[in-house]
Amino acid sequence: MHGREIKATWMRGGTSKCWVFDREELELPDYTVDEVLLRLFGSPDPRQVDGVGGGTSTTSKAVIVSPSSDEGVDVDYTFAQVGIEEPVVDWGSNCGNCSSVVGHYALRRGWVTPTTPTTSVRVRNTNTGQLIVLELDTSGDDTVLSEIPGVPFPGEAVRMWFVEPAGRTTGELLPTGRTRDELTTPHGTAEATLLDAGAPVVVIDARSVGLTGDEVPAVLDADPETLLRLDEIRRAGAVAMGMAATPAGAERAVPKLVVVSPAPEGSDLRVRMLSMGKVHPALAITGSVAVTMAVATPGTIAADLAAPHGDRLRISTPAGIVETVLGEHAGRPAVAVTRTMRELADTRLVIGPAALPARPAEAVAS
Amino acid sequence: MHGREIKATWMRGGTSKCWVFDREELELPDYTVDEVLLRLFGSPDPRQVDGVGGGTSTTSKAVIVSPSSDEGVDVDYTFAQVGIEEPVVDWGSNCGNCSSVVGHYALRRGWVTPTTPTTSVRVRNTNTGQLIVLELDTSGDDTVLSEIPGVPFPGEAVRMWFVEPAGRTTGELLPTGRTRDELTTPHGTAEATLLDAGAPVVVIDARSVGLTGDEVPAVLDADPETLLRLDEIRRAGAVAMGMAATPAGAERAVPKLVVVSPAPEGSDLRVRMLSMGKVHPALAITGSVAVTMAVATPGTIAADLAAPHGDRLRISTPAGIVETVLGEHAGRPAVAVTRTMRELADTRLVIGPAALPARPAEAVAS
Fold first, then answer.
1. What's the family (chains A, B) (predicted)?
2. Which of A174, A185, A240, B152 gives a 20 to 30 Å CA spacing to B42?
């Protein structure tokens, strides 16, 4: 049909749906990548009915990739959170779930040569500078499938190594130089571990704020007083980590608040994570990296509560167990998280005749 | 990649997103079409995260088409509402919005030869037996675009003629033989027009139930007492039309309740439609056909309130004006509704190795 076509692959990565594009596919004359993405996704529109976006934050995501020219990196990968009701694309962070699809995509595009039985794909996330090494099963035995919390169907497992995750936001694993800090808030003082790895986090013991730690997210979300108290601690932590000048000036997305408590049977530590003013239904990938590094750092609140089995850490979340591994890649410390992924569709997206915002006549002379 | 591939076209039809399949694409050995659709869409799962469904009723729809062998019909079209949280496919009704994409698809597949300046595509909806004639602009001038309520981007207009829509459910335009009936409900009696065209409907005057008729859907939806009273009238209408033995036995989806009131400036009649216990954000396509036939039938409540201009009827809905035309096709009465549509993506969907429910070994011997 008429209209321009753009090649894209739709993939489920972890608990997200991600639209994957070769970088050059989004480079249209006269339009910015933001404009092209917004139009393809059907934004702004709460339903994204005239585009490929799914009308929720976990289904309005783009993965933009190209082969890397850098030694030690196979693929450059940029993540874009495409606005839904607002015509805005956010380039400020990575998505751990979408990261899991990049290796498979690179193999399919021939950017990486498979080895047996596994293939490592070195991916650099350009939003954060984070090197992520993806380990894929390329044994040819495609009956090996795994499950993860939040996805009711099994998929191919991908192990993602976050290499040297410490200090990417603040420059230090422990931005205050201490494993524990006393934070002052309008409701009194609170003891916290302030740590930056994967994402900057403020870790507190559930019992220190009158919680048990096994609260259901919906119940906590319906308790504005507790949420306010927890957010005050988070904001005080932001100031102590040098991320904000005042509590009111702290961002909503970071640092994240991680509430830890003794593990139930079959796990090593229990967590509830607060992000954007709400309790996360499971645990962000970046949050699981931070928790792992906190457990590995003697003297932190997480380390004193956790009972890990060797290098494996089984984190109990509201959605189930998230397992991480503490190890190394090429001699550098690294944390691994396993996600499942699958290709949903190989597509050519259509930008119709009225697809892009109108330009002044001189800009679209054709 | 490994896994079976199924060709599909993703199209926006009116206010719905529809996955369009050649009938034979869904015919997989050892599996029913229901099983294949549910797996492709990622059901059951409230988020449909591992499939192409969008997690809402308007984005979990399939259009299954094939060239027709019948004289007078170009395309046989079956609509499927794919369950989201339940592993159930509903084949019981048509979707007016998705109907609008079938003509375009048939042209692209070469099943119909285009004419200038417009092309008519005769589509038989197999769920209902309804013949729908789609009029497409094939003048080659693809700058002619239209807008409809509920879609923030313009698209190609398609005029859909519903040919002889009367009596498809009950056998008669006026199932009781009268233009007005007195219905008895637990809250007293109510005057209604009971009519079957496009869909069976119970039409009442807003003022007869203490409403003004310009109520905002969200406000009515938050008023359980009024909703209950309206549903009692709807259920009493179902019994009077012979669609249920008792009010409690009436289906939730049909008949629909249509609340009419005098038109605001720039329209001919105002409506609020109740479906599935909620106020429709606009007006179902089938509901607009019913309202048009009601206005065209002297003595009905809608006819006495409406002030149509010739054959055109401008219906004021919460989302804006829906315009219909009363006319004929090949000498038979027909009602036209205009929708816009566009192709979103040309795709090959992947059913991975674990994509379909497991079969006993003897059934999948390979």
1. Belongs to the PrpF family.
2. B152
